[in-house]
Specification:
Strand content: 15-25%
Number of strands: 13
Number of helices: 9
Shape: globular
Order of helices and strands: HEEHEEHEEHEHHEHEEEHEHE
Radius of gyration: 18 Å
Strand order of the largest sheet: 1-2-3-7-8-9-12-13
Structural class: alpha/beta
Helix content: 25-40%
Distance between the termini: 12 Å
């Protein structure tokens, strides 16, 4: 999930006099129905927008944005309206559109498949960890409620040996622990199932590092060459369902982000997440705008 691109079920209490027909119409299946009177939906991921499109967030209680592109004033406005605001924070790869790309390019260790603007980073390097620390401090000063962490998948995709995996694992743990101990705010890991599974296998106290996970593409998948969405294969869905149940048993919050334009698929996601008590967002655009 990227800036360039890129579930806690709540009972419904909607504003005004929405009819039963409206409540059951397909548009509601974009996310859980929110228990908060001010909002229609519970959760939405909008890392592809900036504050010029702030009205895009008005119907969602919990929102994920890229705080680099929002002012302190705009975030304060969102919070005053009752939104819970998470900021996207990429700790495992470097995007070539970031202002400090040239400074940190030397720490990259491989190309990120399907995302030409990104490269994996050796997160064990102290300068890189300090970069993340400074970014988090900036976003905290802007008033965000928590961090939405991307690309812990560097552990799986760029770890070419046991030694390199151990090094990357240690770097990720250091960054996440620093975020939790410094700010005492929710930290949601997007993806990173191999990393999270290792933390579970080692019997770590997980909340020292993160408080929840967001898994993309449990029930859907993205065909990048054809630039289209489709149903996830059965094996992938079964794997992620088992993984997320394990995560929930550890007391963590679970979110899903799916990609589909299909009404029937949205309803399937709604039913699955309702049964398990997960928050979800069903996006119809890979840019998450």
């Amino acid at each position: 999930m990227k800036k360039a691109i890129a579930g806690l079920l709540c009972a419904v209490l909607l504003i005004g006099t929405l009819s039963v027909d409206v409540l059951t119409s397909d548009f509601l299946y974009k996310s859980n129905k929110s228990a908060h009177k001010s909002f229609l939906y519970e959760f939405g991921v909008f890392v592809g927008i900036d504050e010029k499109n702030i009205n895009r967030l008005k119907d969602y209680h919990q929102v994920v944005i890229d705080a680099e592109y929002f002012s302190k004033k705009s975030i304060a406005k969102l919070k005053k309206q009752g939104h819970t605001v998470y900021t996207y924070l990429n700790i495992g790869s470097l995007e070539n559109y970031r202002k400090d790309y040239k400074k940190y390019k030397k720490y990259t260790i491989g190309q990120y498949e399907n995302w030409e603007e990104e490269q994996w980073v050796d997160v064990s390097h102290k300068p890189w960890q300090q970069r993340i620390k400074k970014m988090a401090e900036t976003y905290d000063k802007k008033g965000v409620d928590g961090f939405f962490i991307d690309n812990c998948d560097v552990y799986y995709f760029a770890g070419k040996s046991k030694a390199s995996k151990d090094k990357l694992f240690g770097g990720l743990c250091a960054i996440l622990k620093d975020l939790r101990t410094t700010y005492h705010k929710p930290v949601i890991i997007n993806g990173g199932d191999s990393f999270v599974s290792r933390c579970i296998a080692r019997k770590y106290k997980l909340t020292k590092y993160f408080t929840g996970v967001n898994q993309e593409c449990v029930y859907t998948s993205i065909d990048f060459p054809k630039n289209k969405f489709k149903k996830a294969d059965k094996a992938s869905t079964q794997y992620y369902e088992a993984y997320l149940k394990k995560v929930r048993k550890k007391g963590l919050d679970v979110y899903l982000t799916e990609y589909t334009k299909s009404s029937s698929m949205r309803k399937t996601i709604y039913k699955k997440c309702t049964k398990q008590g997960y928050c979800y967002y069903a996006a119809d655009d890979i840019q998450l705008i």
